[in-house]
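Hi U.,

Before I forget, here's the chain from the pilot set. I'm dumping it here mostly so it's searchable later in email.
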Amino acid sequence: MATSVSSEVLAPAALAGMQVAVTGSSGGIGRAIASRLLALGAVVHGLDRAPATIDDPRFHAVTIDLADGPKVTDVARALVHVDALVHAAGVLRVGGLGELDYTAGDAMWRIHVDAATRLADVLVPAMCERGRGRVAFIGSRVARGMPGRAQYAATKAALVSLARSWAREVVAKGVTVNVVAPAATATTMLEDPARVASAPRVPPLGRLIEPEEIAELVCFLLSPAAAAITGQDIAICGGASLPS
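Structure:
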């Protein structure tokens, strides 16, 4: 029997007035995060190549290919006023040694790592000047390595290293930087024909992680209550990271 998921941890309007840039806001985890932020009173600037799927007066769509580095930098400069950055955009391509796809590997690096770097390089110093700010990257449980997913894992591991390095740089300036690392999540990414040879592993919990569960954790990390949490790689994995 399916288990219903409740995601009511933060009080209504807990993030009222917060300006948040969210990548990948048109679908999957990014859309769930953007929707939850809006429900909590935030203003969301959604960065995505796909058309916007959220209709709300406090949602502002920004059409951009996150693999285009110079354009990412330009968009970041236009959003320098935001209080928080959530980098949720992602793509998964698989392949073992001897059949690695270098084009796909480059695309994953540009979207996962280079886009995060360019956005943070502009937005985080501005947060530091204001004495407050939040950054959350969507990583992956796979970051520690998995056969057939080396290129993807490498990009997600890089996010952890970036987050820990930057967290130490800005911890005294009121800015936190964290990674949320989900196990297999119920999004359309699981239906991508490019990963047909690599089926998702259902966590010991007995079901996939729901995007709304990830969104709730991310929103908490953006809240004032999470001011002491920084430089962490937080798994939301339904037991998948535990020893068997």
